[in-house]
Amino acid sequence: MAVCAHCEADTELYNGGVPICLKCADEREANSNKDHVAGVRGVLARALTDATLRAESANVEFNAATADIPSSIPQPDGVQHIHNASRALTAARNEMMRAHNRLNDYLVRGIVPEDLKRSD
Length: 120
Hints:
Oligomer: single chain
Radius of gyration: 26 Å
Shape: rod-shaped
């Protein structure tokens, strides 16, 4: 019989060639799950923060494009500039809402997005 590498209890269980008792193996797995949960929440929160900053930046660009018109009739290239800024703002807001929904689904329903699931 081997001795657990962590608490020195007698064990016949091995993890990666290292002897480990059931109690230490369970604690190790619980800590691993906590780290994963904190990691998922952190990734989703950072994604939301980044998307929000991009949306705010796109909003500033859109406001600058519309405020740049000296009269109520924009120049021909000004119209295209406003359309481009509007599209960028819409895309950024959609990305922000997607990030918000992913974080909300995780926090409220416990749904981990497929791209963040661990492969054990």
